[in-house]
Amino acid sequence: MTELEGSAGSLSVNGTATPEASALFEEFFEAERDRLFKALFAITGSRDEAEDISQEAFVRLWERWDRVSVIGEPTGYLHRTAMNVFRDRRRRVVREMKRVIRQSPPPDGIDAVEARSVAATALGSLTRRQRAAVVLTEGLGYRAEEAGALLGIKGSTVRALLYQARSALSATPVEER
User: Fold this and answer.
1) pTM score
2) What pLDDT digit, counting tens, does each position of 81-106 carry?
C-alpha cells in the first residue's frame, strides 16, 4: 500500500525519499556544491556565511526534491533559492540594526550641558563680529553672502571673519575653551 507521490513517479513514497531520489539528490549535491559555494563567497565575502547559505539552500531544495528534480535543470532553482536565503538574511540584519538603533540610550544630559558650555566659552573668546559670522554660517547654515546681508557687510568679509575665528579657536588650548 504505497502511494507514489510527485510527478517523478518513484521519488517519494508516503513522503519519504526513495533510494533513487536520495541518490539523484546526492549526485546533484556533489556536482553543484563547490560552484554554489564559490558564487556565494564572491557575493558575501565571508566563507562562513557562504557555507551557511549553501547548506540552507540545499536543505530547502531537498525538502522539495520530489518536485524540483523533474524540472529540466534544477541548478537555477538552487541558485535562486540561495539568493533568496541571502536576501532574507540581509533583510533580517537590517531590521535588527534598526531595532538596536531605536533602542539606543538617550543622549546623556550632562554631556549635552558640557558641550554647550564648551561651545559658549569658545564663542565667548571671539570678537562680536567673528561670533556673529560663526553663528550665522556654522550654526544656522546661512551662506556667507546671506550672513553678510543680515550683518550689513560683504560676503567676503564674512569669510574673512570665519577664517579669523577658526584661527583664534585653533590657537586656544582646549582647556581654556
Assistant:
1) 0.50
2) 999 999 999 999 888 888 877 776 66
In angstroms, the Cα distances linking 150 to 133, 155, 159, 162 are 10, 10, 14, 15
Residue after which a domain boundary falls, among 56, 84, 102 = 102
pLDDT attached to residue 13: 44
Q: In this structure, are 96 and 122 located in the same domain?
A: no
CA angle 34, 40, 45 (to 5 degrees): 120
Last residue of a domain, one of 75, 102, 129: 102
Contact predicate 47/39, CB 8 Å: no
Rounded CA separation 163/65 (Å)? 71
Same domain for 27 and 80: yes
